[in-house]
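Problem 12. The chain below contains 107 residues. Write out its predicted structure in token notation.
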Amino acid sequence: DAGVHSKAWYAATCDRKMAEDALYRSNKDGSFLIRKSSGQDSRQPYTLVVFYNRRVQYALGREKSGEERFDSVAEIVENHQRTSLVLIDSQNNTKDSTKLKHIVRVS
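Solution.
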């Protein structure tokens, strides 16, 4: 389970729409949660959902060369609570960065 099920930031029964709604309600840059990915790729079982600049953005895709490696999802979250996470918007071709600051719970 990659050590995520006991974490406050893991939204076990959350789908994409629920995650987006919860993050829009929080309306704070750096709000985040982790949910199960909707795809069936076992190498990408989780999705990190982040609110920044009035938009919901997604991270935790496939590993790319030159990127930092982590042994667990928890390590990724802990690292990006201290250091900024780069958010790339492929539609507008822009880059932003934010730390993971506010855990959002889905109700």
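Discussion. The mean pLDDT is 86. Students who got a different answer should revisit the alignment rule from Section 12.3.
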